[in-house]
Specification:
Strand content: 15-25%
Largest sheet: 4 strands, parallel
CATH class: Alpha Beta
CATH architecture: 3-Layer(aba) Sandwich
Order of helices and strands: EHEEHEH
Oligomer: single chain
Distance between the termini: 17 Å
Protein name: YkuS family protein
InterPro entries: UPF0180
CATH superfamily: Response regulator
Number of strands: 4
């Protein structure tokens, strides 16, 4: 099962991903200070106000970071699937 961390405030995304069979965990941007928290996930979805929430580049962590701003929950799901199959 794909594990996705979703930033607080993206309830529609959380609900959609859960319905699609993802294991979803909500997080608050300012409450997670340890970057190793994100290593337990296959992808991270952020609001757009917290770009690069992990403090370093995706390519170094190999964890896709999806910026939800302007996207539907379905588009986010497709991006996660696309990035995880590469």
């Amino acid at each position: 099962m794909k594990k996705v961390a979703v930033e607080k405030g993206l309830k529609d995304v959380e609900q959609y991903l859960s319905e699609q069979g993802y294991s979803v965990q909500e997080f608050e941007r300012n409450s997670i200070e340890n970057a190793s928290f994100y290593n337990g996930f296959d992808a991270v979805v952020v609001t757009g106000q917290s770009i690069n929430v992990m403090g370093y580049e995706d390519t170094k962590t190999k964890i896709p970071q999806i910026v939800a701003e302007g996207l539907t929950a379905q588009e986010i799901g497709r991006q996660i699937d696309s990035k995880m199959t590469k």
